[in-house]
Amino acid sequence: MSQPITTSVTMDAESFQKFRSFDLFHHQKRWQRPLLFAAILLGSSGICLSQVGVREGASLLAVVLAIVALGLPAVYFYTFFRDLRTTIQKLGLPRPFYRLRLDDAGLSVWMAGEQDKPQPSHQYPWQDLHVAYRTPDAVYLYVQQTQAYLVNGEERDTVWDCLKTHLPASRLRDLR
């Protein structure tokens, strides 16, 4: 790489919400458990319906199982989005979050309030980066399974090109 890429990331409410939703539902695939729960209980409700007229209380149990099957996942998703709105309000967005530099050594991060210091808050060699995602709106750099940095400015195409030269294809996910 001839020139390091440096970008300051300011997070607004929309980009924060998109990132948190992406992280939970796409990266962590946390939608799978509520869906499996609903499928199991709806299947059980179906079995109970097949016993209506054969077993006493089968219709009542079928209705209760169906309500729980649909209600608990609905509460899970409602709680996520409610808590997300609360978090956005508490963070006082938009505001600067960090500055990133990508160079031949890897990724360097200066957190908000430390962006003028000469030494980065965190450094990650290329081999330590977990995975990178490219969406239409941003690039998500996961340095660990549960920790990521977001590039949402005009530099995202340049950052993605840099990632393609330093990371193996198995750790790049282009979702555009």
UniProtKB/TrEMBL annotation:
UniProt-recorded name of the protein: YcxB-like protein domain-containing protein
Keywords from the UniProt entry: Membrane, Transmembrane, Transmembrane helix
Organism expressing this protein natively: Faecalibacterium prausnitzii
Highest taxon above the source species: Bacteria
Source species taxonomy: Bacteria, Bacillati, Bacillota, Clostridia, Eubacteriales
Membrane-spanning parts: 35-54, 60-81
